[in-house]
Amino acid sequence: MLEDHIIDLYEKHAETWVQARLRERSFPEKSWLDRFCALVPSPANILDCGCGAGEPIATYLTAQGHSITGVDSSEKMVRMFRDRLPNQRALVQDMRKLSLAETFDGILAWDSFFHLNHDDQRRMFPIFRAHAKSGTALMFTSGSSHAEAIGVFQGEPLYHASLDSAEYRNLLEDHGFHVTENVDEDRNCGGRTIWLAQSHQPSTG
């Protein structure tokens, strides 16, 4: 199964991936990260699922004064994250098995969540909920319809999958999040489909 080789693929090509990101002149993620930051306190404690080497997401968020806990299945990526951001926390962990026994002001799964197969994506929502407090912002990228797609990275197949929009909305609502913004194939962000949600605040009566 191609999805089972994602970790090995990023481990094998970690340095190449990071250098490619560093060479990019554009930063299309910025506007969405700013929207995400508008929903969290300042400073915030943010969980970055699939943090990679911390570039550009964690680097940008720490520059805004936030604290990051990065988790990634690739040991090489985590090692580079620690080298780049020595004052932040990075853990070699599979997000599908994450159980940190703590909650965060914000949770990200940017360009990582969509590498999981359909069932693993569904199983992530209880994990998001377990690491959220009241008002936690959650942002992730997905596809725009129920499908699987195979890209190419360094000449090797790269697996992606997505549920449909209605199922994502239902999963978010069922696990205590309401959607604040959702854009399909955002042309201003590299064609990504982006979900920004927030855990329900308690009723004030």
TrEMBL record:
Keyword Repeat: no
InterPro entries associated with the record: Methyltransf_25, SAM-dependent_MTases_sf
EC number(s) per entry: 2.1.1.-
Gene Ontology MF terms: methyltransferase activity
Keyword vocabulary terms for this entry: Methyltransferase, Transferase
GO biological process: methylation
Designated name of the protein: Class I SAM-dependent methyltransferase
Organism (species): Tunturiibacter psychrotolerans
Taxonomic lineage: Bacteria, Pseudomonadati, Acidobacteriota, Terriglobia, Terriglobales
